[in-house]
Amino acid sequence: MVVDMKNEKPPAEPQVEPPAEPQTELQTEPQAEPQAEPPGEPQTELQTEPQVEPPAEPQVGQASRLSEHSWRRHLPHIQLSAGYYFITFTTHNRQFLHPSHKDCVFEAIRFLDGKSYELYAVVVLDDHVHMVINPIDTLSKIMHSIKSFTAHEINKVSNRSGKLWHDENFDSVIRDEKELLEKLNYIANNPIKANLVEEYEEYKWLYIKGWINDYK
What we know:
This protein has 216 residues and is an alpha+beta fold. Helices cover 26% and strands 13% of the residues.
């Protein structure tokens, strides 16, 4: 048997498929583990510096120098009748009252005790006055008498003219003994709170019936 070498195709080389890259089962990028957020400054639940509340200012009738117990030891027993008033009045444009001016105001208010009112307490400060009275006359007549007389006298010794007192007064009815005690405590402590004296007994223009500067 003759084999026609010319027509016979040479045996094909065995085709070797190139090795496939190892499949990684639809290799997608490996899922990264949940990444923690980059460490920032540690959060401390809005930690702020501990806030310290400032000490509260003494309220009326609660100043530290005079306790209610000490007041009850000093105050004479009174039967509080209707008509006690706590009154405040100020100088015009907050004019400063010099010691001689305070003398004039303090003495005028003391002089009217028993005539126009029963005076229970008064303090004359640098630019205003507090007092507790049980009126005999009307409040308007009482305040007019005090203001007109003292303005005239102070202007005369100061060689000046013009208004000394603000037109308006601030008054409130004292309803019971507890409120009276608070007002007296407030009046006695005013010179201390204003840094005018260290102890209330040292203040010349302070009067409380039956206790402080009651020289009648």
